[in-house]
Write a structure and sequence with these properties.
alpha/beta, 6-stranded mixed beta sheet, 16 strands
Amino acid sequence: MATGQIFSRNTQALFYNYKQLPIQRMLDFDFLCGRETPSVAGIINPGAEGFQKLFFGQEEIAIPVHSSIEAACSAHPTADVFINFASFRSAAASSMSALKQPTIRVIAIIAEGVPESDTKQLIAYARSNNKVVIGPATVGGIQAGAFKIGDTAGTIDNIIQCKLYRPGSVGFVSKSGGMSNELYNTIARVTDGIYEGIAIGGDVFPGSTLSDHILRFNNIPQVKMMVVLGELGGRDEYSLVEALKQGKVQKPVVAWVSGTCARLFKSEVQFGHAGAKSGGELESAQAKNQALREAGAVVPTSYEAFEGAIKETFEKLAEEGKITPVPEVTPPPIPEDLNSAIKSGKVRAPTHIISTISDDRGEEPCYAGVPMSTIVEKGFGVGDVISLLWFKRSLPRYCTQFIEICIMLCADHGPCVSGAHNTIVTARAGKDLVSSLVSGLLTIGPRFGGAVDDAARYFKDAYDRGLSPYEFVESMKKKGIRVPGIGHRIKRGDNRDKRVELLQQYAHTHFPSVKYMEYAVQVETYTLSKSNNLVLNVDGAIGSLFLDLLAGSGMFSKQEIDEIVEIGYLNGLFVLARSIGLIGHTFDQKRLKQPLYRHPWEDVLYTK
């Protein structure tokens, strides 16, 4: 594997299995380092295509999303790093697919628990094709001031603290991603910082070894010394021992193998990583540290002395003129995301939507402050839910039952009315449910089903002003306005609408007051004297009775009642109710497999 540098300021990666935070952290690091182009060229999300919006400094950018590895590699031939955030179940297959792409040179496998047999196949293929695998079970790697993989080095604050926004002189390799963050900080305190850092991962069979990267660092001129953090278990460190003994490493190596405390336990200990388990004396931390020391590495007596050993080695190189400490630079500030700035109290931002009827932020949704569990446990019906979401209060049972009766009575009025006809024609044209429903709903207006609000509005105004039925009807006539809620195409004074009678019976039985309904009946008496079809229709009945519900319940102020009528609440009842019937007509036509509707010629008057 040897060779040398695997990343640069121009390196671009393909990111497999979209994760917003690690990608944004990569882009923030790019901006911090002064890169001109983002390091993430594309995202691979199996089965999805399009773009993902992210930030590159202050600028919002769109990163392409591809549905397959092959498509992404074809679209971004210069992207030679594959960052795999797939789960352990699919990480091996997707990694092998990426390795087989000629454009991919380096793969980082983040997942833990990848089957060892699969990992061995990946390693064998990568080595035979001169490719680099970092991981599995890794956080990735970083080249300071140039490129980083995913969540490597953590937050931007930590990256700045560790001076990773510009290159230093130290090459670092570790098994542990978490300890890498710690060592980046340690190295930044006592040297001019990291040039490149790699966490090979804690699995038993890492895709690349400690010695693989040390030998690479040895070939990178900018790396003047190396720091290694190993751990008990396995024999990876011994390949580094052999490389040191054979003189393959000409630069100082400061090393420590963690896990010396394992000897304090009476039985064998499994530490955090799969590979951190001593299988005998040779795999103990003490034996490895001793072997490294004898091979020529600088090995302290304890982890506490590790920092001092790194500092002493760096200072010696500086005194010998082998290192010219890197001049410090001030990195640009990273714009803070609005959400985090709001949480920290740094900024105030206006909201874009106000909602007073429901809240889904807690453990369960609430309607007007009433938890969903309460609605179910207390046996609330549709009328109760409407009272909460429309009127923001829990109305008495007789009110919510009246709402439910209105919905039931207005759900459908046969296939011949305009709304149902439109829905049937649309459904027979092969359109979907929503299109068929909407085509019917769009006919609701002043001529079809939309008179409920107007009936309530005019009846209320006339009653509140003390107009007699005669004065009301004649004043409407002079204005050229038909009285809403009065008149029917079929029903007559001697053949009343059964729906109106049912509503009136319910109101007389349950409502504390029916003054508006009684006024509407008086108006009907007057209009019937003019024509037998000028009866109180269902719109007029619902409109007048809803006024009685609002006024008689004692739960609404006059201003609230006026607002409810003006906004159009009552028409909402008709829209809600009739949607049930329109959906039914759609299903009926689909079930019957009715063909495209064409209006018959004989039903059309063709004229000039």
